[in-house]
Amino acid sequence: MNPRSTIHTQFVIEREFPASPARTFRAWSNPEAKRRWFVCHDDMANTGYELDFRPGGNELNRVVTPAGTVHLFQARFFDVVPEQRIVYAYDMHVDERHLSISLATVEFEAGGAGTRMRFTEQVVFLDGYQDREERIRGTELGLDRLALLLHEPAAAH
Predict the structure, then answer these.
(1) What sequence ranges are listed for the domain Activator of Hsp90 ATPase homologue 1/2-like C-terminal (predicted)?
(2) Which residues, 6 or more positions from 117, have their beta carbon under 8 angstroms from its beta carbon?
(3) pLDDT digit string, tens, across residues 95-151
C-alpha cells in the first residue's frame, strides 16, 4: 500500500488578452470555445468533454495521450459572476491515480487593450504526487491556447 500524504501549495498566473471581458469570459463559459483551448498538450486526444456552466454545474474533460494514458479533469462550479469571476473546484486523475484536488478562482477586469485575467489555484497534491511546476506549465499552455483563440475573429467562437 502506498503511504498517504497531502502537499498544499498555490500559484497565481496573470495574463492580458486582446479581447473584452465579455468575450474572454465567453471563452470560459461556451462549451465549444472552452473545449478548443482547454488542453495542455497538442498530442492529447479529447475523448469526452461536458460543460454545464452555472453555480452547481459540472465540467468534465477526458484526454488520452498517444501512449494511452488517460487524464481526467472533473470540476464543480461554485460562483459565477458574468464577465467578473469564476470559482470552481476540480480534481485530476491520471489513469486510476487521484493526483490532486484544487480550488481555482478566475478574475476578469477591463484593462490595457482588452482584459486582465488573474487565475489563482490552491491545490492539494495527494499521496506522493507533487509536481507544482508541471501544473503551472500545463495551465500556462492552456492559457496560451486561450490567447490564440481570442486573436481569432469574434465570429469564430
Answers:
(1) 19-145
(2) 14, 15, 16, 17, 24, 106, 107, 108
(3) 999 999 999 999 999 987 899 999 999 999 999 888 899 999 989 999 999 999 998
Fold of 6-152: Alpha-D-Glucose-1,6-Bisphosphate; Chain A, domain 4 (3.30.530)
Q: Where are the domains of the chain?
A: 6-152
Dihedral sign (CA 88, 67, 35, 136): positive
> What is this structure's pTM?
0.91
Which residues are CB-neighbours of 25 under 8 A, at least 6 positions away? 82, 83, 84, 86, 108
- How far is the C-alpha of 15 from the C-alpha of 22, rounded, in Å? 15
